[in-house]
Design brief:
single chain, alpha/beta, Rossmann fold, Glucose Oxidase, domain 1, 3 domains, six-stranded parallel β-sheet, 19 strands, SBT, Peptidase_S8/S53_dom_sf, hydrolase
């Protein structure tokens, strides 16, 4: 039986990846570089011994119908650390030989699932990080397999466990004290709040349980995350934000330089790589690499690229390939497919080798109210800040505050800021209408929000212009940067006006 070699996977799947050398932009500051050298999981120290154990475990698994134990497949502990040190030193030497000292900062060395590093520019003399010429130099350097620009990531988790009845499974698996014993779940998400009652054990003996022997993770203390936060239910915690820090989006005061989750959120090992603004792929790759090195059994990934990747196949980016390597290392990977539906081409979990999870519906609703001058209140769907202060804002129908009135679809005009009369819209809440029959095909709520922000209006109400109740199967809710409300019943707005 041939020993698993990740480099073969790269040859098959990264051949189709093209280097992004397009125009520089605000986020084009970090690149991930994959080297041809083997990562730790294919390092052939005592290869014959590993092959023997691998073959024995395969035979036993077939006979006893049990899953493979990862700690028998790959060496960890001191050997893994030694290999990491050697590979990291080699990365540093490689960079020093090609780039001037002080012109870059190495953010991470990836050594377990892939062999490579993430890089950011430091020199103010370079107007845009890694100019095309510099990228060409690195890409042609001996030993470089791939260079990929960092990608913005978004959070993709939501509330569903109680709704789908997951809590009813625990009694079947040994109850709250024993269900999940021996299984470590690596959570790559927004971190964790160690004070949450979910992580307080009902008895001291269970609270003091040690993590499984095969788990090598650590509890990294920090702001609002003391060293004793790892108590048997939380067995490890780290945070990854170097790319986010370099982007300027990370603020240690509000985002916490620790595994702590300011939002609130078996045995868990926490790898914080998501923040209120989302995150970056290079940070997520570092988290996945560390989680597998630590010895987790399952990775729960509540992050994904902010949009469907271009190219011949959506799953051919570095993260998706790394998730394949994680599954080859014996780790089950579960990823949320995103919250951008229900339109086509909105699924952002692409890998056919992992478990992608989606909710066709949920019991969660985000409710707001529209209060008009006579004190009457109307319920609506929205996920935005309220209008500023306690004052009442005047309403204006979009058709009445445009340069030219017409019988065209009012919604379409709400997506064009050039035809609004700014003197008539500033400080007002604009009512934009649409035809419910075109909802699934033509309504672009993002363009409306962008227009309202551009023209300086105080907010927007989006509603159907028909006289009947709107026949839409769901109430759309998406976060907006300006006060907004979506009213699905045209009759409500007729009463309000």
């Amino acid at each position: 039986m041939a020993f698993f070699k990740p480099s073969l996977v790269f040859c098959l799947f990264l051949t189709f990846l093209s280097l992004n050398c397009g125009p520089c932009h605000v986020f084009a500051k970090v690149y991930m570089v994959v080297m041809e050298d083997d990562p730790f999981i294919s390092y052939k120290v005592n290869h014959k011994h590993i092959m023997y154990v691998f073959s024995v475990r395969i035979t036993l698994a077939c006979l006893m119908q049990i899953s493979l134990t990862k700690e028998f497949l790959f060496r960890r502990g001191e050997e893994a650390q030694k290999y990491k040190q050697v590979a990291t030193t080699k990365h540093d030497s490689f960079l020093d030989s090609f780039l001037p000292i002080g012109s870059y900062k190495k953010l991470y060395s990836y050594t377990h699932l892939i062999n490579g590093f993430a890089l950011h520019a430091e020199s103010a003399k370079v107007p845009c990080f890694l100019t095309p010429k510099t990228i060409r130099i690195l890409s042609r350097a001996k030993g470089v397999r791939l260079i990929q620009e960092d990608i913005k990531m978004v959070k993709t988790s939501t509330h569903t466990p109680n709704y789908i009845g997951a809590s009813g499974v625990w009694p079947l698996l040994g109850g709250s004290e024993h269900a999940g014993d021996g299984v470590v779940i690596g959570m790559i998400d927004t971190g964790i709040d160690p004070k949450n009652p979910s992580f307080v054990s009902s008895n001291m003996s269970s609270q003091a349980k040690s993590p499984p022997a095969g788990f090598k993770g650590i509890c990294r203390a920090g702001n609002r995350f003391p060293a004793d936060s790892c108590n048997g239910k939380i067995v490890g915690a780290r945070w990854f934000a170097r790319a986010a820090q370099e982007s300027g989006e990370f603020n240690a005061t509000i985002h916490y330089a620790s595994p702590y989750d300011s939002d609130g959120h078996g045995r868990l090992a926490i790898y914080k790589a998501a923040y209120p603004f989302g995150g970056y792929m290079s940070d997520v790759i570092a988290a996945v690499d560390q989680a597998v090195e630590d010895g987790v059994d399952v990775i729960s990934l509540s992050m994904a690229p902010s949009s469907v990747s271009p190219g011949p196949a959506s799953f051919l980016n570095l993260l998706e390939v790394q998730l394949l390597l994680a599954t080859k290392a014996g780790v089950s990977v579960v990823q949320a497919v995103g919250n951008a539906g229900p339109d086509e081409n909105t699924v952002v979990s692409f890998s056919p080798w992992i478990l992608s999870v989606a909710a066709s519906t949920t019991d969660r609703k985000y409710r707001k109210s529209i209060i008009i001058g006579n004190g009457k209140s109307f319920s609506c769907g929205a996920l935005s800040a309220p209008t500023q202060g306690e004052i009442m804002y005047p309403l204006a129908l979009a058709d009445d505050v445009m340069v030219v009135n017409s019988t065209d679809d009012g919604y379409n005009k709400c997506g064009d800021p050039k035809i609004f009369i700014k003197a008539l819209v500033q400080g007002k809440v604009i009512i934009c209408t649409f035809d419910s029959s075109d909802y699934y095909d033509d309504v672009d709520l993002d363009s409306i929000i962008d227009t309202i922000q551009t023209i300086g209006a105080a907010g927007v109400i989006i509603t159907d212009r028909s006289a009947h109740d709107v026949d839409i199967e769901f109430e759309p809710t998406f976060p907006t940067t300006v006060p907004s409300a979506i009213v699905l019943k045209g009759s409500d707005m007729r009463v309000g006006s």
